[in-house]
Write a structure and sequence with these properties.
Oligomer: single chain
Distance between the termini: 23 Å
Length: 198
């Protein structure tokens, strides 16, 4: 989630906060930024009360700052989705990854960045979709690749292919639709072609 310091509510703007709103509380700008980027929002337990300088009550503490969740706050992802990372501290923009962990209604999402030896906490990313290969020309760049069977986990190499599909090492013929459904690339990407964003 992108951090915008102008969205922070303070003592002067506390009347905009309501009990039950989701967000983050902190007592400093740096601590707030860390919480917004790396932690799940929580429910505000109350506003006002015991302290004029710390009006936001959350998690048994009173805080001076509150950053409300802006609706809609988060795109919907699920484990296994392919994403393009558009902003991260650890990998360059444009890196393709696969969602390893996703907590709905939160900032917590971990992406396996393909081509890197580590997972990254998502800062910003967008969903990308794939489709089956349409013909031999689209499959051709992958003819020397190994593909992982999604059911059994083993690897297959497809050494013969034409416009309808490909044959594996034991000469079983699969259509490109079946290849897409039952196999994935060795790096975890779907066995197909990335669709262009609309």
């Amino acid at each position: 989630m992108e951090f915008d310091k102008h969205k922070i509510l303070t003592v002067a703007t506390a009347n905009q906060a309501k009990k039950g709103m989701k967000g983050w509380c902190a007592d400093s700008m740096d601590y707030m930024m860390m919480k917004v980027i790396g932690y799940s929002p929580r429910e505000l337990n109350g506003v006002g009360g015991l302290s004029e300088t710390h009006p936001f009550y959350m998690g048994d503490f009173y805080w001076s700052l509150f950053y409300p969740v802006q609706e809609p706050a988060y795109p919907i992802f699920k484990v296994g989705d392919c994403v393009e990372i558009t902003e991260s501290f650890l990998v360059p923009a444009g890196t393709i990854g696969v969602v390893n962990y996703y907590e709905p209604d939160s900032t917590r999402m971990i992406v396996r960045a393909l081509g890197f030896p580590w997972d990254v906490l998502k800062i910003k990313c967008k969903l990308i979709t794939f489709r089956p290969f349409a013909n031999a020309e689209e499959f051709k760049p992958y003819r020397n690749e190994w593909f992982r069977d999604k059911t059994f986990g083993g690897f297959e190499h497809f050494d013969y292919y034409n416009d309808e599909g490909a044959k594996n090492s034991i000469r079983i013929y699969l259509s490109y639709a079946s290849l897409f459904k039952n196999f994935e690339m060795e790096n975890g990407l779907p066995c197909g072609v990335k669709e262009e964003s609309k």
